[in-house]
Amino acid sequence: MKTGRIIKSISGDYSVQTEDGVYITKARGLFRKKKTSPTVGDIVDFQVENETGGYIQHIHERENILLRPPVSNINKVIVVMSAVEPELSQQLLDRFLVVVHSYNISPVICVTKKDLATDKQSAQIKQLLNEYKMIGYETIFVGNDDDLSLTIKPLIKGIIVLSGQSGVGKSSMMNRLFEDLNIETNKISKALNRGKHTTRHVELFEMEDGFLADTPGFSALDFSHIEKEDLTNYFPEFEEVKSECKFRNCTHINEPKCAVKTLIEEREFYKTRYNHYVALFEEIQNRKVRY
């Protein structure tokens, strides 16, 4: 029996990295009975069947797991947005941050294409990132002419996931960090102002102190696992004041003497974030019950 980490999964074949190389393995039927399956990032035990293959017998306990994209044992998620092409959407950024928080994973905000932004756009983005820094987020603003070894590489300890909508530069970032990868990238669709989905599967790429995961691009996010009562936990600035609300289970929507509503009058940034919170709260509240 050998132990290793799943670094790639394609059509039922799991590439498991061990101390003595990579094995292409398959999962035993027992996982179907347990209604689970191995996931990229899992530490697994497998029975060797030949020199390069085997069958997975056991999945070690996971620290966490993302459902979309399917990756486990994540240390941080870098939420990648672009300054231009497509332009940064703060509402979309906040939606990504909520999803990351909901899995109890620390997000980092990375804005790309700094070199393509005008001076005015750069100033606005720097101001916005400073606002996020003030509520506890780690932020990065990079362009194609920046040295990623000084900005991205220091973050890669454990498993780091790159996430964000298509066309924001995730694959380009991977290609710059791993020169021999040549991950396919597509230009922005002018009609949709977004990139085509170029990454087809989840894969971990090893660096000195960890792994960087390239994940399929997407612009629609799944909130089906989030309850509206929990949403307030995923806005750090609310966390600091919500104990001052009159009602212990305040949702910060219609309740009187709400400390969050007082907070949002302090800065426009808070008000914008609150509006995104309300929109998401209503979206979750109005979703159809699944049976």
TrEMBL record:
<dbReference type="Pfam" id="PF16745">
    <property type="entry name" value="RsgA_N"/>
</dbReference>
<dbReference type="Pfam" id="PF03193">
    <property type="entry name" value="RsgA_GTPase"/>
</dbReference>
<feature type="binding site">
    <location>
        <begin position="164"/>
        <end position="172"/>
    </location>
    <ligand>
        <name>GTP</name>
    </ligand>
</feature>
<keyword id="KW-0479">Metal-binding</keyword>
<feature type="binding site">
    <location>
        <position position="252"/>
    </location>
    <ligand>
        <name>Zn(2+)</name>
    </ligand>
</feature>
<keyword id="KW-0862">Zinc</keyword>
<dbReference type="GO" id="GO:0005737">
    <property type="term" value="C:cytoplasm"/>
</dbReference>
<keyword id="KW-0547">Nucleotide-binding</keyword>
<feature type="binding site">
    <location>
        <begin position="112"/>
        <end position="115"/>
    </location>
    <ligand>
        <name>GTP</name>
    </ligand>
</feature>
<dbReference type="InterPro" id="IPR010914">
    <property type="entry name" value="RsgA_GTPase_dom"/>
</dbReference>
<dbReference type="GO" id="GO:0019843">
    <property type="term" value="F:rRNA binding"/>
</dbReference>
<dbReference type="InterPro" id="IPR004881">
    <property type="entry name" value="Ribosome_biogen_GTPase_RsgA"/>
</dbReference>
<keyword id="KW-0342">GTP-binding</keyword>
<dbReference type="InterPro" id="IPR027417">
    <property type="entry name" value="P-loop_NTPase"/>
</dbReference>
<feature type="binding site">
    <location>
        <position position="245"/>
    </location>
    <ligand>
        <name>Zn(2+)</name>
    </ligand>
</feature>
<dbReference type="InterPro" id="IPR012340">
    <property type="entry name" value="NA-bd_OB-fold"/>
</dbReference>
<keyword id="KW-0963">Cytoplasm</keyword>
<feature type="domain" description="CP-type G">
    <location>
        <begin position="63"/>
        <end position="221"/>
    </location>
</feature>
<dbReference type="GO" id="GO:0003924">
    <property type="term" value="F:GTPase activity"/>
</dbReference>
<keyword id="KW-0690">Ribosome biogenesis</keyword>
<comment type="similarity">
    <text>Belongs to the TRAFAC class YlqF/YawG GTPase family. RsgA subfamily.</text>
</comment>
<protein>
    <recommendedName>
        <fullName>Small ribosomal subunit biogenesis GTPase RsgA</fullName>
        <ecNumber>3.6.1.-</ecNumber>
    </recommendedName>
</protein>
<dbReference type="GO" id="GO:0005525">
    <property type="term" value="F:GTP binding"/>
</dbReference>
<feature type="domain" description="EngC GTPase">
    <location>
        <begin position="72"/>
        <end position="219"/>
    </location>
</feature>
<dbReference type="GO" id="GO:0046872">
    <property type="term" value="F:metal ion binding"/>
</dbReference>
<dbReference type="GO" id="GO:0042274">
    <property type="term" value="P:ribosomal small subunit biogenesis"/>
</dbReference>
<dbReference type="InterPro" id="IPR031944">
    <property type="entry name" value="RsgA_N"/>
</dbReference>
<comment type="subunit">
    <text>Monomer. Associates with 30S ribosomal subunit, binds 16S rRNA.</text>
</comment>
<keyword id="KW-0699">rRNA-binding</keyword>
<feature type="binding site">
    <location>
        <position position="250"/>
    </location>
    <ligand>
        <name>Zn(2+)</name>
    </ligand>
</feature>
<keyword id="KW-0694">RNA-binding</keyword>
<comment type="function">
    <text>One of several proteins that assist in the late maturation steps of the functional core of the 30S ribosomal subunit. Helps release RbfA from mature subunits. May play a role in the assembly of ribosomal proteins into the subunit. Circularly permuted GTPase that catalyzes slow GTP hydrolysis, GTPase activity is stimulated by the 30S ribosomal subunit.</text>
</comment>
<dbReference type="InterPro" id="IPR030378">
    <property type="entry name" value="G_CP_dom"/>
</dbReference>
<feature type="binding site">
    <location>
        <position position="258"/>
    </location>
    <ligand>
        <name>Zn(2+)</name>
    </ligand>
</feature>
<keyword id="KW-0378">Hydrolase</keyword>
